Amino acid sequence: MKDPSERRQAIIKKLASIKQTTASELAQVFGVSSKTIYKDIAALQKKFEGQAFQIMSRPHYGIYLSGDKNEALKFSKRFAPFAELPNNDQERIHYIYNRLLHTNDFISPIRLAQDLYVSERTIERNISSLARDLQRQNIELEKNLGRGYRLKVSEAKRRNLMFQILNQYWGQSWKVSENGQQASIQFEKEPGDDHLVSGSLVQKLTDILDQFSEQQSFKFNDYEFQSLVIHLAIAISRVKEGRPLAKKLAGTDERAEQRQNAEKLTEMIKNRLGISLPPQETSYIQLHLIAATASPVQLEQKEVDQSVSELIRNELLDVGYDDKLVQGLAVHLTSTIKRLKVQISISNPFTKQIKKNYQQAFELALHLASSVEGQYGVVLNDDEAAYLALHIEAYLERTRFDRHMINAAIVCSTGQGSAQLLAAKIRNEFPQISISGIWSASELKTKDFIRIDCIISTINVEILEIPTILVSPFLTADDRHAIDNFVEQTLGSGKKDQQEFGRLIFPELTWAHSTAKSQAQVLQLICQQLVADDFAKDGVLESTVKREQISSTGFEMYALPHADPHFIKHSALAICTLKQPVKWGENEVSAVFFLAMDGTKSQQQLDHIFDYFYRVTSDQKLLQRLIKITDSQQLYQAIIGES
């Protein structure tokens, strides 16, 4: 008996029929080790704590069942499904959410408590947590005193929510298989892997869609293929349960784009699965096919909406951009807008990591997303913004790389011979220096110095505002030292990160072991002090709360709230550690770093600040050490010492 749940079910039955036994006797009966039996007993004791019967284990006596043996026998009959039930708050919340998604009816807390073998009070606590999470997504959890709870959402919205869960749950179940010259996407189903919809149905739909793609010459990228399979599985499951879409969706009449392909796919599903989908479900498929044709992979540069490109340039004017960023974002946003116009959303499995690791890029993405929403009447959630952030972060990385290189011009009396030798030595010994030109003195008056950071010359030259390093053609030790000093002063990344970060910290904006009990209390404490000390204007609290409503700034252990720069007079970093963790979005945080930026910092200064801040917050041991400090002055000194 390899299945632990079956073995434990049998152990309960056996204990209910005898007075006592031993681990070695049970091990012999079930063909496992005594150690395995002790693990089973420990699991059973935990499961049945507080129930009408208990599994007991006493030294020198053995293992026996105490309490109502009839109840134990009844319990054992339904133990197999129980073995897979959740046993902590987070798992129960997820379970309850799945149950609510699966039905349009009310679910009673009493029924949930019975099904999960916990108290009704525990269920109510879990439902309250779920309701808060849903509220942040603008999803209403309806309560009826006599009947319980249900999700108050449309059928289309319910399906999108189911898709988000399934896409995450089955994210690692896909593989690309090659058969001869033909590559196809396959779904690998684990036994019993039926989560909201049947895993075997997903396998069949994968084959159907693969065949459709080949017959109709319809190109999907991997994500679009997987997404459509899951959406089809949800649609078919809901139709079989008598829950089809109530009406045909807008923009999907018989003459509209992709209608013929949608009808063809509907026919293939009927022929292969014996399921007839109503016209409104064909329209639902049509929308997904329209969205697939709008993907960045399918779009060409000439199809990009030029008004989107213009919006991007305007929004990124302060931070800067290059052609690669504008083109990449324009193609992505043109695709996104078209997809969202037909109400097809996507999920991003890396949103949390992007928000944490690329905080500046994500913030810029949120501002861009807000402008897109205002101009095009679509809503971009965190998942959508995170994809934009990747484009922006790639641009920031390109500019950081440029800033970590020094563009130099080599000047010699002739520009040949000795100058070439000098250039070769510099290339070999100073990888941070990019040589933009090798010029003679007579050529200087014809050259453009806009992108030149310094001149390395064997003769005295003076170019306004361009530093000159005078060296020998043979690059002596003193020459190397002079160039080293210039490189360190110009780039000096580590020290500059610390210096920029340290300039933001003030003792009056540092609190250790605050007794604030909630996110609201923490923000009020910090914002009041920012205004009182003339770092911020009135309205900074409201601005910060508004920003949190867009997307939580809470991460594991810490939060990084901030306000609109218009409300900041002088840049500062307020730091508050908490005596007890507080709920911040989906996280429990013990340290709050309020980044008050007035908008006057250059991109290079911001990079230094965020780079150093990331090093601090990604160091779990350092964060724990800061959180343990109970005196505000000591906390200030500790942070200053780090920076």
From TrEMBL:
Residues 4-65 form the HTH deoR-type domain. Gene3D superfamilies: 3.40.50.2300, Mannitol-specific EII, Chain A (3.40.930.10), PRD domain (1.10.1790.10), Winged helix-like DNA-binding domain superfamily/Winged helix DNA-binding domain (1.10.10.10). It comes from the Bacteria. Pfam families: HTH_11, PRD, PTS_EIIA_2. The keyword Cell cycle does not apply. GO terms for molecular function: DNA-binding transcription factor activity; protein-N(PI)-phosphohistidine-sugar phosphotransferase activity. One of its GO terms (biological process) is phosphoenolpyruvate-dependent sugar phosphotransferase system. Residues 503-642 form the PTS EIIA type-2 domain. This is BglG family transcription antiterminator. It comes from Ligilactobacillus acidipiscis. Residues 406-495 form the PTS EIIB type-2 domain. Keywords: Repeat, Transcription, Transcription regulation, Transferase. PANTHER family: CRYPTIC BETA-GLUCOSIDE BGL OPERON ANTITERMINATOR, LICABCH OPERON REGULATOR-RELATED. Residues 196-294, 295-402 form the PRD domain.
